[in-house]
């Protein structure tokens, strides 16, 4: 009898604690589409996908699918709430050996503090669920703050709402700490899309966005950045103050020789005054031991450098170049799997690319 009474009391206490926690987190939710969205090339019918499906019909099938991922898209909002929660719906339940669930399917919250974006906490996706709901941070002070919420890198978000305390303010800022009038457009491979950042804000396009205070458009297509002319035609329609072409890793050396010059020349002809930055492929760490891989990577970088030299020879202006030696480091610790970058590797490439962007802006 005593045990039954104790179990009853424990159960009652647990119930009351849960009810108290729920009362403390009494929240209202706002559709993220009503706030400020950054990181999108153009408007899309499905708000949280990168390229509208009508504009990908001539592109390879895999690119069409990857264009639906939300990599690089972020929401900016202001609130004085001590609690921030989020509800988001994913297109698929994923597993990726070289990425964290937070990176491929989660959220990443930053707060503007002393003029800089500071990491707050992630939205951790629950395994096996498409409909996600989570309190990201609680027990904050109630001063009005500006927040930045990055969306998943390798999944598609179909719905997103942000929750705050019922009595708190949640609104779109009148002035955001990102200059949306200045845009960097990055076309590239899985590395650009964000493999293998620990969380969405650690992908290097996101790092560049915070470092430069500019709107950065992530057009990374995992395994499928192959300089097809259909992609060049789309890229030329995207407004940008700078184009970064980090699309060498996915192409065979022969493809680079065949496609690089026509692709770059087309973009230059359509955007005659916009700087173009070419980025070499990362050095595959296992290529120091696997001779076939090592030789292929060397040829890839040799061939894109030849294209760069040819452009200079033909007097093309505002073309910049980032060699792999400028961002790989000498410690061989910048990748997860020998190819895809860790946060350390992303920090290095972001700094190298930012340097060229600043150089281009100084000459503008």
How many domains? The number is 2
Which structural class is indicated by helix and strand composition?
alpha/beta
Q: Note the gap between the termini.
A: 83 Å
Helicity, as a percent range? 25-40%
Percent of residues in β-strands: 15-25%
Number of strands: 15
Basic shape:
globular
Count of alpha and pi helical runs: 9
The quaternary state of the protein chains shown equals single chain
CATH class term of the largest domain: Alpha Beta
Largest sheet: 6 strands, antiparallel
Q: The CATH topology of the largest domain, please? A: Rossmann fold
CATH superfamily of the largest domain: SGNH hydrolase
Mean pLDDT: 94
The Cα radius of gyration reads: 23 Å
Ranges where pLDDT stays below 50 over 5 or more residues in a row are: 14-23
Organism: Pedobacter insulae
Pfam families: GxDLY (PF14607), Lipase_GDSL_3 (PF14606)
GO molecular function: hydrolase activity, acting on ester bonds
Protein name: Lysophospholipase L1
